[in-house]
Design goal:
Length: 210
Amino acid sequence: QPLQNLDQIFVGVIFVVIGLTLFVVGLEIGLFPLGEQMAFNFAKKGVFSWLVAFAFSLGFGTTFAEPALIAVASKAAELATINADPANQEALRHSFAFALRTAVAISVGVALIIGVVRIVFGWPLHYLIMSGYAVVMLITPFAPQFIIAVAYDSGGVTTSTITVPLTTALGVGLASSIKGRSPLLDGFGLIALASLTPIIFVLIFGMLWS
């Protein structure tokens, strides 16, 4: 089939390529070093409470602004409210999308707190991952059917263009600043936790929403 509006598609693709290129360059120049340096400074000064607050803020802020999450939440809200009262459908749709994004953002903030504590105290990552997925398996049967697939997808959409670089910078910077921690062994793993906790939080969100 011939493509319609080929000129618009071409211009749109060019804008996407330019935008993503500049975005990635901006992350590497500014935000990646910022996340790593702030984690390093908090750890060196020994202000654990500020380090935890920074980790939560970083996880919440980057996830709430994640374009992939915005798209998924919008589509999920559209389908979840398809049978709602037409008079309140639009408001309910916005409310569902906002609440879903908030739940996922909070979950990633909590994941980064757990990840920071893990790095500081040297906890084994695999025990946390196995325990987390055990919780997922336990609560999935009790969640409403409409939210299960959305919950499992939420773990993937949170780890995209904005969240991944800054989360990695936080972990590597923190592990590099703590004596006895390896940036390679301990600095990574935050993204795994950030992919796990949204599943739990969104399943619980579905239970509360229904």
